[in-house]
Design a protein that fits this description.
By secondary structure, this protein is mainly alpha-helical. The protein has one domain. The protein is about 70% helix and about 0% strand. The protein contains 4 helices and no strands.
């Protein structure tokens, strides 16, 4: 299962929160853009939070962040005590960190697009699936913990 979790991490947040922003940011730097190190603070915080969430999925949920290998148990520990979607929030913090680091407004637009995509995925896909899969446990959890912050 560890290799599944690692693969899912590299494919999903790896592409969305690392590869695409790096490609955009490096292109801007090559064109004369500015590197701002203070953006590394939210970037590092976002990655730390993301890793915490991935760990909770693996340890508490007995699964991965991937739709093809989801947690078998509803994860309600760690950051999931405060938000139903801290992994998505972590990715958005990472994207804001990249935007600040590379001082690129295009990365802010990318983050806004990703935020809308996350909202649609959560409301239209994940929450109905969680309700079907976890029943009353999901109902209690979702009524006690906010969707975002």
């Amino acid at each position: 299962m560890f290799l599944h979790a690692l693969f899912a991490f590299l494919v999903l947040p790896g592409v969305v929160a690392l590869l695409i922003p790096l490609l955009i940011g490096m292109r801007e730097l090559d064109a004369g853009g500015t590197f701002r190190p203070f953006g590394l603070l939210p970037l590092a915080a976002g990655f730390a939070l993301l890793l915490w969430c991935v760990r909770d999925f693996y340890v508490s949920g007995k699964g991965t962040l991937a739709p093809w290998s989801p947690p078998r148990h509803l994860v309600v520990t760690g950051l999931y005590r405060y938000s139903r979607n801290p992994m998505y929030i972590s990715v958005l913090v990472i994207l804001i960190g990249w935007a600040l680091t590379f001082d690129v407004s295009g990365l802010l637009w990318y983050a806004a697009f990703i935020a809308v995509a996350f909202q649609l995925r959560v409301v239209l896909g994940e929450e109905p699936w969680l309700a079907r899969t976890h029943g009353e446990e999901w109902t209690r959890y979702s009524s006690a913990v906010r969707r975002w912050i």
